[in-house]
Design brief:
It contains eleven helices and 14 strands. An eight-stranded mixed sheet has the order 9-8-7-10-11-13-12-14, sandwiched between helices. Strands 1-2-3-4 form a four-stranded mixed sheet, covered by helices on one side. The radius of gyration is 26 Å and the shape is elongated.
């Protein structure tokens, strides 16, 4: 096979298209054949849909890991995908990527030979993006509380010691059997001087939350006792300790792979002596863990409820975990339709007020001072965080209304049976999931 032929600068191709054209040309049998087919290949690649060939790819991590969308540059294997899942997602009558490679063929291709071209494509993309690793984005099962990543490694692919054959699949990707710092799937992402390491094939990570992590760290006050009910690898636990100077954080998590990464990150950032990690369902573990020694010293100043699409199933436990003498702050994450944000805010406050009253706190108020837009989750659906104070009117933490601020208080408001927003957990709603429902 001849040396790879570089494309002339005048060809208007983005990085992904460039790597794809370069790959196809490298499988031509001669320089003359490359020159003959180049114009045809350019046109074919430029005509691909954005689903098949995106304009750009996401780069994450300190090592610049490249993330390929789930069905981008994907070969449909008739025996594995047929014309169901993959083609439905692509919304095509045929597999564009497969059709492209076949239409530009200069020899008789088998599926295995197409996979060989695919492996070269990953290598070329890594070179163009200056990345050390290429992965395919995976699907997260919404009905699974563990919420594993599903990412798969595309390049470099490990080889068997005995046969030197690749262990994985160039199309779907590879999941290592081992995890931890020595695993090829281990990645470190440094944000705002905080090191976050995890197994990208087993643990989910969202770069879109980076601003919210910083904001949460700034909200935490020195000396606060913080409860992170859905800690993951330490997304909000670490900012609370490192930037907020919290006195102590109780971090709850039930994904074993996330717990491994959480403990690793606490030690790597030098804050493991200020954290209690509770394993398992926080709605159960907190009831067992929280045994008051004195009513004045009981509870948390600030609680993070960073579970999407909804943390509603944990609100009852969260309210009971607030300081009994002065109440505290709850930072409630949710995916909310844009047009329902105000409705959701009122409903959230009323729901928390009713929970507080059931706990015997009839004099407690619920005050929402801010609803922060974190990111767009889907068309017309936003990931938001409501900053809500729940506690007595005598509390020194009671927020005062500031001009221009979002401010909703249940004080003096007669509670009524509010109609729940569409994003409320309900058997008849769009977010009904058994594992999210409140545990009794």
């Amino acid at each position: 096979m001849h040396q790879m032929m570089l494309l002339p600068k005048y060809v208007s191709l983005n990085n992904v298209q460039y790597a794809l054209v370069e790959t196809i040309l490298s499988f031509c049998t001669s320089e003359i054949e490359s020159a003959t087919h180049r114009t045809t290949i350019d046109k074919a690649v430029l005509s691909l849909s954005l689903q098949t060939c995106p304009k750009k790819l996401e780069v994450i991590g300190d090592d610049r890991t490249l993330v390929v969308p789930r069905y981008a540059l994907f070969l449909v294997d008739d025996q594995r995908e047929a014309t169901t899942t993959a083609l439905n997602v692509l919304n095509k009558g045929s597999n564009e990527f497969y059709d492209l490679l076949i239409s530009t063929k200069t020899q008789n291709y088998t599926l295995q030979s197409l996979y060989k071209m695919q492996s070269k494509l990953w290598e070329n993309l890594a070179r163009v993006y200056q990345s050390s690793r290429v992965v395919r984005r995976g699907d997260i099962d919404p009905d699974s509380g563990v919420r594993e990543s599903g990412h798969r490694i595309l390049w470099p692919m490990p080889h068997s010691d005995d046969t030197n054959e690749v262990k994985g699949d160039w199309n779907h990707g590879f999941t290592p059997t081992s995890t931890g710092p020595s695993s090829p799937s281990w990645i470190t992402v440094t944000e705002h001087r905080i090191s976050q390491s995890f197994d990208l094939t087993r643990v989910m990570f969202s770069r879109g939350n980076v601003t919210e992590k910083k904001r949460f760290g700034a909200l935490v006050q020195p000396g606060d006792r913080v409860l992170d009910m859905y800690a993951g690898i330490g997304y909000y636990t670490l900012p609370a300790l490192i930037h907020g100077k919290a006195r102590h954080v109780t971090a709850c998590e039930w994904n074993p792979n996330a717990i491994y990464a959480l403990r690793y990150n606490l030690k790597a950032n030098g804050v493991d002596d200020k954290v209690t990690v509770l394993e398992g369902d926080c709605r159960v573990s907190l009831k067992e863990h929280l045994q008051p020694t004195s009513m004045e010293d009981y509870g948390y100043d600030r609680i993070s409820l960073g579970l999407l699409p909804s943390s509603e199933g944990g609100w009852v436990v969260a309210v009971s975990c607030l300081r009994q003498d002065s109440g505290g702050w709850m930072h409630v994450h949710a995916n909310v339709p844009t047009v329902e944000r105000e409705h959701w805010t009122h409903w959230l406050c009323h729901s928390l007020q009713q929970i507080a009253e059931k706990n015997g706190h009839k004099d407690w108020h619920v005050i929402c001072t801010n609803v922060e837009m974190v990111k767009s989750f889907a068309p017309k659906v936003d990931h938001v965080v409501a900053d809500v104070f729940v506690g007595p009117s005598s509390s020194p933490k009671l927020p005062m209304m500031e001009e221009g601020a979002c401010f909703y208080s249940t004080a003096g408001v007669e509670l009524t049976a509010d109609v729940a927003p569409s994003c409320a957990l309900s058997k008849d709603g769009i977010l009904y999931q058994d594992w999210m429902i409140e545990q009794t």
